[in-house]
Write a structure and sequence with these properties.
By secondary structure, this protein is an alpha+beta fold. The strands form 2 sheets. The chain has a 4-stranded mixed β-sheet with strand order 1-5-6-2. The chain has a two-stranded antiparallel ribbon with strand order 3-4. A hairpin with a 4-residue loop joins β5 and β6. α4 runs parallel beside α6 and α7 crosses α10. The chain is globular, with a radius of gyration of 17 Å.
């Protein structure tokens, strides 16, 4: 939601996660085991640190099909597997799933903030209640790939951090053509790029129905939709993330191209 070193940016050792979860598909049911996720204190890439019941539970693609916990972890694995191949010197970022509040390198985070990336500690923070909020408050249809979109967007900010893009935001934090909006739309585009390339990582396939879930989630967090829901009117000059249409447009730009070079949101109109 904000940009710069030490300031949270939201929406929000080794290569492939604490375990390699071979996802047959990201569809399926199951509940989030919040206690298991919290016991991780962050998803550690590369298998160097595995903790608690999650280590026992998440070992196969079938586990991911039956367990939402494993599926979330497997999504993080897939995202980082892709970017580690694309970005020279890519540093995996830990993911901290939390409920309620947690301390971060960018200060205390609460559920009110939503998922975000903290450049100060290079971690992605996800309040699991946000996924339900998408549906209950902002009308998203939900689904596993809506959750995947949120995670991929936040890891897009990590990529921006590594490439120095977040430093471009400076004080230009509001308005329809602001650097803040451009950075958020680029993160959406990077999420689409990952979705296009996910089958080459630990995800076996991505269906059109799953892309529809991601697009629906992107629309639900557009500034115009959120402003209408909260204040009953749209104020473009207060935008920080872009409209629903823009967020869908740039996710599709990344998905259709499969190329991070297609994500230059800092040149020309958006």
């Amino acid at each position: 939601m904000r940009g710069g070193r030490g300031v949270a940016v939201g929406g929000g050792a080794g290569v492939v996660g604490i375990i390699i979860v071979l996802l047959v598909t990201l569809l399926g049911g199951g509940n989030i085991d919040l206690n298991a996720l919290q016991s991780l204190d962050g998803v550690i890439a590369g298998g160097q640190q595995q903790q608690g019941e999650v280590h026992k539970e998440c070992k196969t693609g079938q586990d991911a099909e039956q367990s939402r916990t494993c599926r979330l972890i497997g999504t993080v694995n897939s995202i980082q597997a892709y970017w580690s191949r694309v970005i020279d010197g890519y540093r995996p970022a830990n993911t901290v799933f939390f409920s309620g509040s947690t301390d971060t390198g960018c200060g205390l985070a609460t559920a009110d903030v939503g998922p975000f990336y903290c450049p100060a500690d290079e971690k992605v923070y996800v309040d699991l209640g946000f996924f339900q909020e998408l549906q209950a408050r902002f009308g998203a249809e939900g689904g596993p790939f809506a959750e995947a979109y949120v995670l991929a967007h936040e890891y897009g900010h990590h990529v921006q951090d590594l490439l120095g893009v977040l430093d471009k935001i400076g004080g230009d934090r509001e308005g329809p053509q602001s650097a803040a909006v451009r950075s958020e739309l680029q993160a959406d585009c990077y999420a689409g790029v990952w979705a296009a390339n996910a089958p080459s990582t630990v995800v076996a396939s991505v269906s059109e129905d799953q892309i529809a879930q991601a697009l629906d989630a992107a629309a639900s967090v557009g500034d115009d939709r959120i402003q209408k829901e909260i204040q009953g009117q749209v104020n473009r000059e207060a935008w920080t993330h872009g409209s629903s249409a823009q967020r869908q447009k740039w996710f599709l730009a990344g998905y259709r191209s499969g190329d991070p070079n297609a994500c230059d949101t800092f040149s020309g109109p958006i």
